[in-house]
Amino acid sequence: MTARVVVADDQTVVREGIVMLLGLLPGIEVVGSAGDGEEAVRLTAELAPDVVLMDLRMPRCDGVEATRRIRTEHPGTEVVVLTTYADDDHLFPALEAGARGYLTKDADGDEIVRAVEDVLSGAAGLSPQVQRRLLERFAEPVRTAAPAAPAEPPDGLTARETEVLRLVAEGLSNPEIARSLHVSNATVKTHINNLFAKAGLRDRAQAIHYAYRHGLAQPPGSSIT
């Protein structure tokens, strides 16, 4: 299935280069391009793309705010950030706004295609550099002061919802969770929708953060001392 994509970047040369690159990649159709966040929101409403490739530093409406508006007003459209910056001041606000993918502009065509496919399948489309930064961010507090396991799940989560959340934090897809728990995919989706609603979560990236913060899961590669 071809993914319909809108490209948002305020630098004309960069934007046109990305559009040209995407035009050569399998499974992607560029349906529009925007020069700022405001235009990206407008094109999303007009074209209903599957994915917006979003720069962060743009005039009028920056990429974080545009991402927040798109995910709120058009939840059927996913956002993959494509930016020069991978520091905390850009990464975490973008993920909290609802971006499901985050790539830096040194990503090649295969990485972009993979990120688009990942977010459309419900996974997180993160570059290796960003994945390492997330692990570093969450692993360090665990090593220095591991949170005690809560007496009962937070926000009224049931035991099964908590179990599903742990598996999400381990990086399992919905079908993998279903096989692990010996339930249907539909049941897994119901549990995920319920726990997202109870915890006020928008996507899997936020769910992983939530699980680490509440001591329900441990980042890979971390050790408790």
TrEMBL record:
InterPro entries: CheY-like_superfamily (IPR011006), NreC/VraR/RcsB-like_REC (IPR058245), Sig_transdc_resp-reg_receiver (IPR001789), Tscrpt_reg_LuxR_C (IPR000792), WalR-like (IPR039420)
Modified residues (4-aspartylphosphate): D55
Record flagged with keyword tRNA processing: no
Residue ranges occupied by any Response regulatory domain in the UniProt entry: 4-120
Record domain HTH luxR-type: where: 150-215
Keywords: DNA-binding, Phosphoprotein, Transcription, Transcription regulation
Pfam family, one: Response_reg
Name of the protein: Response regulator transcription factor
Naturally occurring in which organism (per UniProt): Streptomyces chrestomyceticus
